[in-house]
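FIELD: query
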Amino acid sequence: MIQKIRNIFAIPELRRKILFTLGILVVVRVGAQVPIPGIDPEALRQTMDSLSDTFFGLYNMFTGGAFGQAAVFGLGIMPYISVSIIVQILQTTLPYFQRLAREGESGRAKITQITRYGTVILAFVQSIGIVFLLESYGIVLNPGFLFRFTAIVCITTGTMLLLWLGEKITEHGIGNGISLIIMVGILAGFPNVLISEIAYFQQGVRGILSELALGILFFFLVMLIILIQQGIRKVPIQYARRIIGRKVYGGQSTYLPLKINTAGVIPIIFAQSILLIPGTIATFLGQDATQSNFMSWFAMDHWFSNVCFALLIVFFTYFYTALQFDPNQVSSTLKQQGGFIPGVKPGRKTAEFIENILTRVTLPGACFLGFIALMPYFLQQFAGLDYSYASFFGGTSLLIIVGVGLDTLNQIETHLLSRHYDGFLSKGKIRGRR
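FIELD: result
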């Protein structure tokens, strides 16, 4: 293992990418600890402790504690995620966005620009809600126009700075910048959760057998998530043999890999963004709205919010898979290259065959993601764990950490193998399920 790590830092380009990524992530964590001016720290701490089991506590986890600190990065990257969901839905419904999606690089650049403008607008609106929420809980030292203006500008600018930093990681670093920022924010809360669990163990709340059972459960959940994330269905592909002059071309057999979870961790992030909308609306309605019966349905320990979360994950898994993988385009490409699936006619029949397999393959992956998303709720109800601790045994946290970690490891693996180094794993590359 030590030699593998040495190989990573032996490649100058890869070393620069990793160090650049780590430097940006340090800036992100520093920004998550810098509060906006005019906040009473003690009142803020007491208020966030009382809201830790609500959707505000969940939002705080996604922002890496920045929301609970009323920091300049208090909104995190979630406004960008929400706007991205809206824009991707519009690409399947409105002709204008459909035309942009077909225009190639120029169309994608235009869509990216629209997404950024939408992020500014949504961050501005949500920052107004945060300001009124802070004032309603008595957290602000000197309420008034000056505080509101300063806080709105700081939070909106912080969100756009965070988006810019994420794009720089994707462009010059290693891994997907937006996903890494979310993952690091989640991991930032793990030391506090671990310290609390050690305190519970010392106080006799949970015994050694309970902790051992939780450790075994965590291990098997991680293995299952990796199995689903890396699992593929191989569709055999045969290329026709062509004779040109004295040379024979084609005649080879390969396969088309259809992943069980083509969408990765995107459905989790999308579903969580949708569930956070009621909480965002409640910030405009004041403290009473957050304590109403309706808003209590969206608490993390309520069965309604958890069922909605699982169903949204299943929906967005199919939705994002349809956006990422087009069977008609794959069928057209195979036909142009002289490839075909044995026993299936080229063209429309091939597209229908691939779509049918993809639909069936995606179902167990989507259901598994939904089951993992409900794991914190089960642990809360039947094991008596706090949500902050239970979330690391399933749900959004574990799925994002494992999914983003695998994606980043894949990119490091590619750099190593392209320069004739052994891969980070003993086999030389990350393999899917055989």
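FIELD: remark
Residues 2-418 form a domain with the Preprotein translocase SecY subunit fold (CATH 1.10.3370.10).
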